[in-house]
Amino acid sequence: MAFAIVGLAGTRLAKLEWGGWVAVAFSAAAMVLGVLIAVGEMLSPGQYVNAQFTWLQLAGAPGPFPNGISLVVGTLVDPLSALMLLVVTVVGFLVLLYSIGYMHQDHGLPRYYAELSLFLAAMTGLVLSNNLLEFFLFWELVGVCSYFLIGFYYEKPSAASAAKEAFLVTRVGDVLFLLGIFIYFFHFATTGPNGGWAANGFVFTNGSTPFLPVASGGSSTLLTIAGLLILGGAAGKSAQFPLHVWLPDAMEGPTTVSALIHAATMVAAGVYLLAITSVFIGFTANDQLAIVAIGGFTTFFAATMAVVHPDIKRVIAYSTISQLGYMVLAVGAGFAMVGLFHLFTHAFFKALLFLAAGSVIHAVGTQDLFKMGGLRKPMRVTAIAFAIGGLSLSGIPPFAGFWSKDDILGAVYSQLGSHPLYWPFFLLAFAAVFLTAYYIFRAWFLAFSGDRARDPSLPHAHEGPWTMRVPLVVLSAFAVAAGLFIFLPNFQSLLLYGAGASGIPPVYGTSDLLLSGVSVGLGAGGIGLSYYLWGNGRVFVLPEASPLHSVRRLLLNRYYMKVGYDWIGLRLVYGISRGADFLDRYVIDGTVRGLEQVFSTLSNQLRRAQSGVVSDYAAYVIAGLLGVFVLLLIVAPYLLAKLGGG
Amino acid sequence: MDASSFIGPFVPELLLLGAVLLVFLFDVLGIRRNEGLSTIAVAATSLALLSVLGDLGFAPLGVFATLPPALLDAAPTGAPLYAFTSLGLIFQAIFLLSALLVCLASASRPSNEKGAPIFYGLLLLATLGMLLVAVATDLIFLLLAIEVTSISTYLLVAYHRRESRSLEAAMKFFIIGALSTVLSFYGASLLFGAYDSTNLFAIGRATSTVGFPVLVLLGYGFLIAGLAFKVTLVPFHAWAVDVYDGAPSDVSAFLAGGTKKIGLFAFFLVFLGPILYIKAIGAGESPFQGGALDLGPVLTLTLAVLAVITMTVGNLLALLQKEMKRMLAYSSISQAGYMLIGVTIGTAPAITGATMQIFAHVLMKGGAFLVVAGVAALGIGPLIDDWKGLGTRRPLLGAAFALMLLSLAGVPLTVGFVSKFVLFSSAVQAQGYFVWLAVAGLLNSALSVFYYARVLKVIFFDAAPTVPVAPTAPPPAEALPAGGLGYGRAVTIGLIAVLIVAFGVYPQPVLGAIQAAAQHFITVGA
After folding, report:
1. Which of A603, A617, A632 sits opposite B221 (nearest CB)?
2. Predicted ipTM?
3. Which of A209, A284, A524, B34 has fewest C-beta within 10 Å?
C-alpha cells in the first residue's frame, strides 16, 4: 500500500531530462498497485486498516482533554478509497504519459514532472489516510501542489494570478475545514469508544466498526455547524457555489494539469471528503439538506454559464463544476458511494474531454471555439474521442455517464420524502441534464463540424504523436465501459456502502424506468437543439431584439460574482493594507528603530562589561536575587490577589 | 543494607568513577594518547548508559539492568538521601548521552595533545556529579552533587591554559559560580531554619504547617537565584555567553547540552515536590493570610515571569550576534526559558514536555556546538559571515547543521518540533494564565526563526569568498593542528543528525517512557 506513496514520492528525485519517463514508470507501478487494491476490494468488500502507528501520544491531564490526544498515521482501504485510488492512479498514469507528447516543447520540465508526481503522491496519501488529521495534511499538500501546477507558466501574469486565486479561494475552504476539525477535536475529546475520538487519533474506523461520532451523541447544533464547516472545505476544493470562481480561471495551467487536477483528482478531493465524512462521522439532517441544496443548485448554475462560453477549456471547466454538483447531491442524499461512482465515471470521460480539447489546442493554437471548425477530418481520433466523452457526459446509454448519473437521480428521488425542500434541487439537477447535453455538443459542432476553420489564419491541424493518441483511445474505452462496472457481481451492494437512510436501492433496472427515460430524453433533446443551432458549421446568432441578450451578458460575466468578489476583496484588502501601511510606517518602524537603539546601547554595555569586570556579573546576580525577592514577596502576591487566586 | 543492594543501583556511577581513576592512573604511567583515553571514556559512558536504560525497562537492554526493581519509583519512607525515580533515571540517560556524544567527538582531538587525561578525567567526573544530582532527594546532597559537576567544569573551561580567552571565561565562571553556590547554600540553610530539615520529602510534608512564611520565601528566593545560575535564567545568565564563547567548543557542547540541565532537574526536585503539596489559594486570599502557608501560586508566578523574561531576552540578544558561538549561547539561554515552562506548570504533561525539550536540546545544541568545533578545526573563523558558502564547500556538514537549526526552530519532522508541541500543548491544557506561557513561547519561536534563517541563508545562499582568506588573527588554539573534521566528530555529528530526524518522525519510544516517568514523579513526589 505504502509503495504507491513511496514510489510516487521517489520521482521527486527525477530531475533529469528523462525524468518524465521515470515519473511515468513510477506512476505505472502505482497504477498496478492501485488496480490490484481496487480488485481486491471488489472481490471481498470491507474495511482494511493496513498499517497504523502512533506518531504522537499526549497523556491526558485535567482540562479539556482528560484522556489525552493522539496523532496517528495509518492507511485504510474501503470501497470508497479503493474506487478513488483506482481513479487517481489510472488517470494520473495516463495524464503523465500524455504529458510526454504534449509538453515536449516546454522548458522547466523537471519541475513539471516533480510537481505532478508530488501531486499524485499527495492525492494517493489523502485517499489512503485513515484519520482526519492525516487527511488534512495531505489535503494541504494537494493544495500547494495545485498552486504550483496552475502557476506553471508563471511568466504569464494571468497564470500567476489564477494560481493565486485558486490558492486563496481553496484556502477559505481549508480554514473552514480546519475549524470543523477543531470542533470535532473538542467535542469528541471524551465521547466515542476507547476514551474519546481525540484520544484515538481521529481514526475513521476501529477495526471494522466505523466510529460515527455524530451518531454517538452530542449537541446537534454544534455538530451541524461542524458539518457545515466541512461542507465549506469541500466546496472550496470541489468548486461548489459560492466558492466555484477559481476553477475556470485555473485553466491557465497546462491542459494536462487541467485534466488531472480539475477534472479527475483535486476537485474530487472535496467530494471524497464529504463522502468519508458521511460514512464515518455522519452528518446531521440539516447538514444533509444544506449539502443537497449546494449540490443541486451548483449543478444547474454552472451548466448555465457553460452554455454561452466561447473558450473550449472553460466550457469543460464549467461542466466540471456542474458534474461535481451531482456528486455532492448524491452524498448529501446519503449515498456516498453513488456519488463516488459518478466521480469514477466522470474522471474518465472528463479527462478524455480535456485531453481531446488539449489535442485540439495543441493542433490549432487557440482556445476560441468560434475560430475553429472543420477539425473532424484532420483529427479523426480526437473528434471521435470528444464525441464519446460528450455522449457520456450527456448521459446517453450505454456510455459510462448514463449509469452513474441515472443512479444519482434515482438515489435522490428515493429520498425525496425525507424533506419537502429536496424537490426544487432535484428538479434543478434534472434540468441541468438538458443544458449539459446542449453545451457540450455546441462545443463539438463548433470545433469539429463544417468544412474548414472560421479563422483562416489558424495553422493546418494534425493529430499529435502516439503518446497523445493512446491515452485518448484508452480513456475512450473507459468512457464507454466504466459504467458497465455496475453489472459486476458485488458492485450493486457496494453502491449502497455507507448509505445510511432507508430507501429504494438506486440501481438501474430496478429503479424507476420512467426516470431514466425522461433523463435520456432530456439529454437527447439537448443534443438535438445543439445540432439545430450549430450543426454542419452553422453559427447561431441571437437576433438583435431578443431579450435573451441580457441573459447572455449575465452568463458571460458569470453572474457578476467574480466582479463582486473582486470588489469586496479590493475594498477589504485595500483597507487592510492602508491600515497595515500606517502600522508599518509609524508603529513598527518606530518600534524597530527604538529597539535598535536600545539594543545597540545594551550590547555596547555588555561589551564593556565583558572586558573582565566580573563584579558587574556578580552585580547582575545580586540584582536578580533582589528582583526575585520583589517578585516573590510583593509582585506575585499582589497580582494573585488581583487575579483572584490565579 | 547489604552490599549488593547498595552497589547495584550505583553501577553507572561506579563505572564512571572507575574510568576516572583509570584515566588518571594512565596519566601517571605516562600513557596519554588521546585515542586510547577517548576509547575508555566512550566505553565507560556507553556502558553506564546501557545500564541506565536497562534499569528503565527498555526490553532489549534488560541484561544490563542492575537496579533492584523494588527500588524504582518506590514510595518514600523516612528521609532518605537519595531515591531512584524513573524520571531521575531518564535524566541520567540524557546526561550520559550528552557526555557520550562529547567523548565520541573528542576522539578527533589531536592525538598528542598534552592535557588529554585531564580533559577526559574532568569530563567523566562532571558526569558523575550529574548522575548524583538525578538521584538526590536531600538539599545538601543535591547541592554537593552540583558542586562536583561545577568544579570539574570550571577546570574544563580553562583547559587551554595558555589561551587568555579560556582563562578569562573560566575565572568568570568560577567567581559567579562560587557566588551562586553561596546563595544556594544560604537558601538551603534558611529552609532548614524554617522546616527543621533539608530533606525534600520532609519539606514537602511540612509545608502546610510551618509558620515562618517570609523566611521560607526568602529561602526559596535564594535557591532560585543559586540554581538559576546553572540553568542560565535571565538575569543570572551573563556568565554563560562568555563561557560558552571562551571555552573549547567541545566543552561548550557539554555545558550547553549537559550540565545546565542539572539545574533544571534541581528545579524539578526543589519546586515541584513542595508546590504540589501546598494547597491552592482561594479567591481573594493573600498568601500571608491565616496560619497555613500558600506558597505554590507565588512561586509559580515568579517562575513564570522568569521563564518569559529568559526566553525573550535570550532570543532578542541572539538576533544581534555576529559570532556563531555567541548566537548559539543566547539561543541556549532562550531554550532554558522554554524548559522552565515545564517546571512552572508542573503537571505531568508539562514535565514531559520540558524533559522532551531537554532531551532534544542535548541533540540540537550539543550537535550545533560540535559542528562549530569541527568547523573551527577546518580553519574557518568564528564569525557567522565566515561560514559563507559552507553548504557548497561541505554539503554534508552544512546539511547537518541546518537540520540542527531547523530542529531548534521547531520545524515539523524534527525532534525539536515534537518537544515544543508537547510542551506548549501542555501549557494550553493547564489553562489559566499558563496559556499565556504557550503564547509567549510560540511568539519567541517565531522570533527565533529569524536568526536561524539568517544563518541558513549565509551557509547555503551566500557565495563563499572567492579568494581563500588567509587568517589574519592567530587561529584559535583548537584549530592549531588543523587535522580537519576527523572521524570521531563526523560520526558524532552524523549520528546526531540521524537521531534528530528519527525521533522527530517516530518520537513514541522516548516520549512514552518520559510520560510514564513524569506520571510517577508527580505521584511519588520526588
Report:
1. A632
2. 0.75
3. A209
